[in-house]
Amino acid sequence: MEGRSSAKLVAAAAAVAVAMLVLVPEATRAERFIVGDAARWTWGYNYTDWVIKKGPFFQNDSLVFMYDPPNATVHAHSVYMMRSAAAYQSCNLKAARLVANVMQGAGQGYEFVLKKRKPHYFVCGERGGIHCTMGQMKFIVKPKSSACRDD
Ligand SMILES: [Cu+2]
């Protein structure tokens, strides 16, 4: 009984090791970006410039949004995804999808994996779109195929 279960354990461990060998090369190629770097996700930082500086982005890269939960001294922030370029341009949040609420940027931040090769229109949804318009809290990322990564 004992021998059989430990043989099973060895087989399971071997299977895991093989799976890791297969998965790790792909996983290590993906990059993780703190949105805004030291500025994090905040009012008045130019995220469009940040995207130009950091890009190109590839499929399976991830964006980490870091911002403090609302308190007496800091503004609340959030992350929304616009469904169209027009909504993005005008900061019209009516049909936007909530990605991370005002609490989810705390601690290690909120991680968004860029799974799809489509334009992602990120904005802050606070103050009825004023953080998006006046605060410049908006940017577009269109990940390239991970096959195009030339590192
Ligand atoms: Cu904001």
UniProtKB/TrEMBL annotation:
Keywords tagged on the record: Signal
Domain of life the protein comes from: Eukaryota
PROSITE patterns membership: PHYTOCYANIN
Pfam families: Cu_bind_like (PF02298)
Database matches in InterPro entries: Cupredoxin, Phytocyanin_dom
The Phytocyanin domain, residue ranges: 31-145
TM region positions: none
Keyword set includes Hydrolase: no
Signal sequence bounds: 1-30
Protein name per Swiss-Prot or TrEMBL: Phytocyanin domain-containing protein
Species in which this protein is naturally found: Oryza brachyantha (malo sina)
